[in-house]
Amino acid sequence: MYCNNCGNEITEGNSICYNCGEQVWDIPVISSDSNRYDIFSDGITSEELGLFVGNKRYKYCNEKWSKFRKPGNSSSIGWNWSALFCATLWLMYRKMYLYGIGIWILLGVIIQLLPDQYTLPLNIAVSLLLALFSDKLYYEHSKRKIIAIKNNSKYSNKQQVISKKGGTSLGVLIICIIIYLGSISAIVIAAFSNQAYLNKYGSNMFFKASSSETDIKSTSDKFLTAFLGNDFKGTMEYSFLENSDEQKNKEYFDSLSRTIAAATNLDQQSNGQAYNLYYKVENIQIIDKEKAMVKYSLRSDVQKEARMYNMDLVKKDGVWKVNFLTFGTSFMGIS
Q1: Is residue 302 part of a domain?
Q2: Same domain assignment for residues 161 and 210
Q3: Does a structural domain hold residue 327?
Q4: What is the SS3 assignment for the chain?
Q5: How many domains does the structure of the chain reveal?
Q6: Shared domain check, 142 and 254
Q7: pLDDT tens-digit profile of 11-26?
Q8: Transmembrane residues, as ranges (predicted)?
């Protein structure tokens, strides 16, 4: 018999491990004749599994995993409340570092690519998936680790190594919680700072436009005029963007010209003055004191046909630039 805390061999009849002082609990290994599910088909015993999982959690895990060990069972579905509420933190706590870090990175990348409104549903979906499949995941993880240790000839006391490699890691859990709380705190502080700045200036926000500061008192044409100049309305001249990828710009304006020409029956050479542009500011988002981004919609009326564009104004390198978001492509140009 071995200590389930440190893996040290215990003489028969002792209830305390002389090596670590832990109270010994016995995992009965039942012969395959009486209950063939207590010994894995790959040679992992209940005692080894108990060493890996840990003293206090073996009974719980053994009950959860019993269905996975039955011949003919192909189901991977279970239910784990800890994984539901703690998600990747539970994986890190159970020393499944590769899974935890991998999901964390993947989530971060996906969240950056998706609109904000999908962040919460995505996190809920991940938590539900972990709750459903974490028991099977931990079961397979435990088996792989135990088999690897048993097959490694350099380990003289395999039971002790199994006990050390398994169990939980409170230190890693604390570090992950600190990182998580730090990230949340940074987001909250940034949100309060931006809101305080917005409250301070309100409708009298000022931005640097054409080397002069202009008060913007309402979300009207004056707002865009302050950025784009007085002569932008009714002309396409402001739309000729500066972009390192000239081919993309050309494709964009060729497509726009063809649409205008089709609607007006004018040739593409004369369509620049053939229609008016009307603008409406939808919302203002202050990113910080040094950099601002304004989101607005552009409505282009071409005779009886109207087209809508989502556009941004972004301050970059001290210059206000127009970001056109249309045809599924983003183009940045100097206003």
Answers
A1: yes
A2: no
A3: yes
A4: CECCCCCCECCCCCCECCCCCCECCCCCCCCCCCCHHHECCCCCEHHHHHHHHCCCCHHHHHHHHHHHHCCCCCCCCCCCHHHHHHCHHHHHHCCCHHHHHHHHHHHHHHHHHCCHHHHHHHHHHHHHHHHHHHHHHHHHHHHHHHHHHHCCCCCCCHHHHHHHHCCCCHHHHHHHHHHHHHHHHHHHHHHHHHHHHHHHHHHHCEEEECCEEEECCCCCHHHHHHHHCCCCCCCCHHHCCCCCCHHHHHHHHHHHHHHHHHHHCCCCCCHHHCCEEEEEEEEEEECCCCCEEEEEEEEEEECCEEEEEEEEEEEECCEEEEEEEECCEEEEEEC
A5: 2
A6: no
A7: 665 556 656 666 555 5
A8: 96-114, 170-192
Residue 6 lies in a domain: yes
Q: What are phi and psi of 104, to 5 degrees?
A: -60, -50
Pair of tokens at residue 276: 């008016």
Indicate if 318 and 218 belong to the same structural domain. Answer: yes
Same domain? 154 vs 258 = no
Give 10-residue mean pLDDT values along the chain (335 residues). 62 62 51 44 80 82 82 84 93 95 92 84 94 94 93 88 92 93 82 55 32 33 44 34 41 53 44 37 39 50 50 56 39 31
pLDDT per position as a tens digit, 207-245: 332 223 333 333 334 444 444 443 333 333 333 323 334
Same domain as 322, residue 269: yes
Residues 214 and 129 in one domain: no
